[in-house]
Design brief:
- The complex is a heterodimer.
- By secondary structure, chain A is mainly alpha-helical.
- Chain A has a single domain (2-316), classed as ABC transporter involved in vitamin B12 uptake, BtuC.
- Chain A has 13 helices and two strands; from the N terminus they run ααααβααααααβααα.
- A two-stranded antiparallel sheet of chain A has the order 1-2.
- In chain A, α1 (2-31) crosses α7 (166-184), α3 runs antiparallel to α10 and α11 packs across α12.
- The longest helix of chain A has 30 residues, at 2-31.
- In chain B, α12 (360-368) packs across α13 (380-392).
- Chain B is α/β, with parallel strands linked by helices.
- Chain B has a domain at 7-237: P-loop containing nucleotide triphosphate hydrolases (Rossmann fold, 3-Layer(aba) Sandwich).
- Helix content of chain B is 34%, strand content 25%.
- Chain B is built from 18 helices and 20 strands.
- The model of chain B is unreliable at 505-522 (pLDDT under 50).
- The chains are: A mainly alpha, B alpha/beta.
- Chain A binds chain B through residues 184-186, 189-190, 192-193, 196-197, 199-206, 314-315, 317, 320, 328-329, 331, and chain B through 16, 53, 55-56, 74-76, 79, 85, 87, 91-96, 100-101, 103-107, 112, 137, 139, 405-406.
């Protein structure tokens, strides 16, 4: 039993990390009053952009011995961040500058992002002349997945707490920093004000559009890292089209579950990750009943929605201006 | 000392599309002075002030601060020139505490420290005699507390030119007096204060000078000590209006609506109405007076079927059949069909009666769409109705197919009241139908109510201006904290009597002692 738990927990965490990136990014975006339903697409683009960067670097370097770990990490990270930043900029331009409908823009971006990822994923697979419909970046993945020192020597403790690649710790660090910034700093106060009541923020001399742009783009970049983590770390550097699945939507569900608090998202992501794979650890399930278990994160989210609606605490509600455009001279 | 005006506007013009909101307006305010800006609805007062505070940018004209020409492009610029505006619709973040709202947008170069900020705000509030709990969340505050937060907010930023947009519209008389005391203290402190208001007696009691706008044009400025209500009204409307509201004797009043022992709770479980009993008669205007939020809204909603009373009876005497119906058992739709009409004009005008994005004709159809025989809409009748309302009530609109959202507040109200009256009701309830309306529009509404009364309609009028209630109504029901504190004859009563009834202590009322217990919690 204990050994099953020790085997289960690290998998739950690894499964949860992409969700954590996605929902931290989405929380920052939603705090500025923008409901970015493009997150699944952005995470997908973040993944494929990193893969493209890593792929090109691995090809250029040739053999494993020549690869400089620092350079591999840098190139992969930067190309991933660039890809998701561009997606974030498209979304901002549409919804902040042009004040287009956020839901439509976001959904379009998701469709676009997945198409973009599949197109370039397919192209790379074609370049490698691979037999299987996937590309494998084992070398880069090994660099990313290097666990903390002593992980293997500390028994179950090392297994549960130290066995992950640095991106997993980065995700938790980003979430905690985001929580502190939102709660304790002037920038966080301003950002929350923009999402709650942009007219008020504007009258207080806050540059509403700048806050929207910065938080949405930053949020996209953070979410994009979730896609990167999924391919390079969780999937051991194997990219195949559509393998990312519904994790993007799960990340958005996690935002609601965490009642727009990045700190809660850390715990929520591990819970969601666990629920997502728990069927593998319960003996005697058929394919049909497995799918029922995969539903559970969404069921939990609906339950949370019901509970926060019933408690009616104003602090737990979404930002009041979420999903609405702001135009100063509108009457 | 040469009197250099704190702020001076020269030739300010602003247009929205084809509408000229401000046309060549000149204005100046000195330090240590309170200037009132007076004007009808849509005369461009708020637009003008929004240009000073950086919300809008003028098309033409220039603004001088202490003799220096300045350009105010954003609210941030306005703060730099020490201009602070308290907007009519408060610019506060609901889920933030007072202190967080005050700290919002501050870039004082210091480390962010909410506690220190709260301390400084506390010092300011003590200096001018405000009473406020800075840790309280905005959504838990009363309107007057919110306004206090707004004022402290602008003072905190060091504003010495203060603009207040209709600050008294939502305050009780006592709160208004408190506010005025604070404003006078600020004036004596050397601040320049601009206050926008409709209420003439406030202008006369508070300000040093009055500037008048009429339809976007600057009419003139007079010293308060050298003017009177008649002159100001004349300047505002361009022509003299009689201040007398006609009142005819009720003809053959019959009980139309009899309310017995009505008790009502709000969502939070607090009792709003306590054992309310009265009757409304046909051919009579029943006024309801009371401090805002004493249960007027709940009472009207209970009659219209929008609230479910905990106990009590609402008996409707049907004039056609002579039958007596208890409205408590009926749906809002059935109640409407009986001819009980609620032309409710709450704080949020569009919220309860009209759909902002739909045009006037479509809004007419909101009430009549069930009448048609076929699946398709017939627009002919609603269009005629819309046009007749626009004509009769002098609604200012480009045409009948303009979205209601784009009309000014007063015109929205006219459309709403006009539509409810057009269905020839037997009971007409109007809550604050003239709130925010200028004098001319108010009189049109009063006349409409009088016409309805003469047609034998039982009119229930919830008003805030006691003078109007005294002149318009036949009987006045006074409500205080959810209790009926008195029903008086409007022809013989005095303002003082009603004022006393409004503020009468009700906690020791013997009436309904058992309900008093439920009332005690919080």
């Amino acid at each position: 039993m204990f050994s099953t738990l020790i085997a289960f927990l690290p998998r739950a965490v690894a499964q949860g990390i992409p969700l954590l990136y996605g929902s931290t990014g989405e929380i920052l975006t939603e705090k500025s009053g923008h409901l970015n339903l493009g997150i699944p697409g952005i995470m997908y683009v973040g993944g494929i952009s990193g893969v493209i960067g890593a792929f090109l670097y691995e090809r250029a370097a040739g053999t494993a011995e020549v690869i400089v770990p620092a350079l591999a990490i840098l190139i992969t990270l930067l190309s991933s961040l660039l890809g998701s930043l561009l997606m974030g900029l498209i979304y901002c331009f549409l919804t902040v500058t042009l004040r287009a409908n956020q839901n439509v823009s976001g959904l379009a971006l998701t469709t676009f992002g997945i198409g973009f990822g599949n197109f370039f994923g397919g192209s790379l697979i074609k370049i490698t002349n691979s037999d299987v419909p996937s590309i494998t970046l084992t070398n880069t993945s090994n660099i990313f997945r290097t666990p903390l020192p002593f992980a293997s020597k500390l028994g179950w403790f090392g297994e549960v707490f130290l066995s992950y690649g640095f991106l997993a710790y980065l995700a938790i660090a980003i979430a905690i920093v985001a929580a502190i910034v939102l709660k304790k700093t002037r920038v966080g106060l301003h950002l929350r004000a923009v999402g709650e009541n942009p007219a008020t923020a504007d009258a207080a001399g806050i540059n509403v559009n700048r806050y929207k742009y910065v938080s949405t783009c930053l949020g996209s970049m953070i979410a994009g890292l979730g896609g990167l983590y999924y391919v390079i770390d969780y999937a051991n550097g194997v990219w195949s089209n559509n393998a990312f699945g519904d994790r993007g939507w799960l990340a958005i569900a996690l935002v609601i579950f965490a009642v727009w608090k990045p700190g809660f998202a850390v715990l929520g992501s591990i819970l969601f990750g666990g629920l997502y794979i728990v069927h593998n650890y319960i003996p005697g399930l058929t394919f049909a009943t497995q799918e029922l278990f995969k539903m559970s994160p969404y069921v939990v989210t609906i339950l949370v929605l019901i509970i926060i609606s019933m408690r009616r605490r104003r602090e737990n509600q979404p930002p009041a201006h979420l999903g609405l455009s702001y135009f100063r001279e509108e009457r | 000392m040469t009197a250099q005006p704190a702020i001076e506007l020269r030739g300010i013009t602003k247009t929205f599309g084809h509408v000229v909101a401000n046309d060549n307006v000149n204005l100046e305010v000195n330090r240590g002075e309170i200037l009132s800006i007076l004007g009808e609805n849509g005369s461009g007062k708020t637009t003008l002030m929004n240009m000073i505070s950086g919300i809008y940018f003028p098309d033409h004209g220039s603004i001088f601060i202490d003799g220096q020409e300045v350009v105010i492009r954003s609210p941030k610029d306005a703060y730099r020139y020490r201009i602070g505006m308290v907007h009519q619709h408060f610019k506060l973040v609901d889920v933030f505490s007072a202190a967080e709202n005050i700290a919002l947008g501050l870039e004082d170069g210091e480390k962010f420290n909410l506690k220190k900020c709260a301390q400084r705000a506390q010092a300011i509030s003590e200096q001018y005699g405000f009473e406020i709990d800075l840790g309280k969340k905005i959504y838990e505050m009363s309107v007057s507390e919110k306004q206090t937060v707004e004022i402290i907010k602008v003072l905190y930023r060091g504003a010495d030119i203060l603009i207040l947009d209709e600050p008294t519209a939502v305050l009780t008389p006592q709160e208004t007096q408190k506010l005025f005391a604070v404003l006078r203290r600020m004036r004596d402190d050397g601040k320049a204060i601009i206050i926008i208001t409709h209420k003439l007696h406030e202008v006369l009691s508070l300000s040093d000078r009055v500037s008048v706008l009429c339809k976007g044009k600057y009419v003139g400025t007079v010293k308060t000590s050298e003017t009177n209500e008649n002159q100001l009204t004349e300047m505002m409307v361009g022509k003299k209006v009689t201040l007398n509201i006609g009142r005819s004797e009720p003809k053959d009043p019959q009980d139309r609506l009899v309310i017995k022992g009505l008790n009502c709770f709000n969502r939070a479980g607090v009792q709003i109405l306590h054992d309310v009993s009265f009757s409304a008669r046909s051919g009579e205007i029943l006024g309801i007076a009371g401090i805002a939020g004493s249960g007027q809204r709940e009472l009207l909603e209970a009659i219209a079927g929008l609230q479910h009373p905990a106990s009590g009876e609402i008996l409707y005497h049907n004039p056609k059949t002579g039958a007596i119906d208890n409205l408590r058992n009926k749906t809002p739709l059935q109640i409407r069909e009986l001819g009980v009409r609620l032309s409710f004009v709450p704080e949020d005008r569009l919220g309860m009666g009209l759909v902002g994005n739909m045009d006037i004709v479509d809004n007419m159809m909101l009430r009549s769409y069930r009448k048609g025989k076929t699946a398709f809409l017939s627009r002919k009748q609603p269009k005629d109705l819309a046009e007749s309302i626009i004509r009769q009530l002098e609604v200012v609109t480009p045409n009948a197919s303009t979205p209601v959202r784009q009309l000014s507040g007063g015109n929205v109200q006219k459309v709403l009241v006009g539509r409810e009256i057009s269905s020839s009701p037997t009971v007409l309830m109007a809550a604050y139908p003239v709130r925010g309306l200028d004098i001319n529009s108010s009189y049109i509404i009063y006349n409409l109510l009088n016409q309805q009364k003469e047609r034998g309609v039982a009119v229930i009028f919830v008003g805030e201006d006691l003078d109007v209630l005294l002149e318009l109504c036949d009987r006045i029901l006074v409500i205080g904290s959810g209790y009926i504190t008195g029903i008086v004859d409007a022809r013989t009563t005095t303002k003082e009597e009603i004022g006393l009834l409004m503020t009468k202590a009700v906690s020791h009322e013997t009436k309904g002692s058992e309900k008093g217990e439920t009332d005690e919690k919080q």
